[in-house]
UniProtKB/TrEMBL annotation:
<protein>
    <recommendedName>
        <fullName>DUF1836 domain-containing protein</fullName>
    </recommendedName>
</protein>
<dbReference type="InterPro" id="IPR009061">
    <property type="entry name" value="DNA-bd_dom_put_sf"/>
</dbReference>
<dbReference type="InterPro" id="IPR014975">
    <property type="entry name" value="DUF1836"/>
</dbReference>
<dbReference type="Pfam" id="PF08876">
    <property type="entry name" value="DUF1836"/>
</dbReference>
Length: 215
């Protein structure tokens, strides 16, 4: 079967435009029980999975593990607030590229604003800002994809191979470019978080040392 890379690329770009992110005003303002929470997340984020028919968005076990790993404050009387949902949405997207420890480091400032009613900086404001940034990034991402796809299409053009094999190797080049981009950005995120952790550890050690001197 002949590979049509152009059709594949067009399909990818079209799918990006249909990513089902959740606007702030569509996150429930009422507290939800566990089953209501998982149903909401499943309905709203199912399209982001690779295999929508079988992949799980969130399960009770996942949520309980997030709480045990100090990623998520415990529910109040078995109910989860809008702030719980906001943190869970962030965790859902981050867990595909970061470790639990890195997610802990990244969202610690968000947990400090949990159930804070300050209009200047509460979790709703943080989520809304991140949502707007994501919308701004869509067009640059699409342009970057087109650039990488064009560059990949310039590879393996002078070889004595079949057209199908050439297209498969160009697809390999495209995936290599995308993979390197992901690798570099993941490495950058990890370095930033390592630096944050180092600074926090140094500040804690300095504080503990100061307390010892006062004794």
């Amino acid at each position: 079967m002949t590979i049509d890379n152009d059709d594949l690329m067009n399909s990818i770009i079209a799918s990006l435009g249909r990513i089902d992110t959740i606007p702030l005003d569509e996150i429930p303002n009422i507290d939800l029980y566990m089953d209501q929470l998982t149903t909401f997340m499943d309905e709203r984020l199912k399209k982001t999975t690779r295999y929508p028919e079988t992949d799980k968005i969130l399960t009770k076990t996942m949520i309980n593990n997030y709480a045990k790993n100090d990623l998520l404050p415990p529910p109040v009387r078995k109910k989860y607030s809008k702030d719980h949902l906001i943190l869970l949405i962030f965790i859902y997207y981050l867990k595909s590229i970061l470790s639990i420890n890195d997610i802990q480091t990244l969202i610690e400032p968000l947990k400090n604003r949990f159930h804070v009613s300050d209009d200047e900086l509460n979790l709703s404001k943080i989520y809304e800002t991140a949502f707007d940034l994501q919308k701004e990034e869509l067009e640059p991402v699409i342009e970057d994809l087109k650039k990488k796809y064009k560059r990949a299409g310039e590879t393996f053009t002078n070889l004595d191979i079949t057209e199908d094999e050439k297209k498969r190797m160009q697809l390999f080049s495209f995936i290599t470019l995308l993979s390197y981009d992901v690798y570099v950005k993941k490495l950058l995120i990890e370095k930033i978080l390592d630096n944050v952790t180092k600074e926090e550890d140094e500040a804690k050690a300095k504080k503990d040392k100061s307390k010892e001197k006062k004794k």
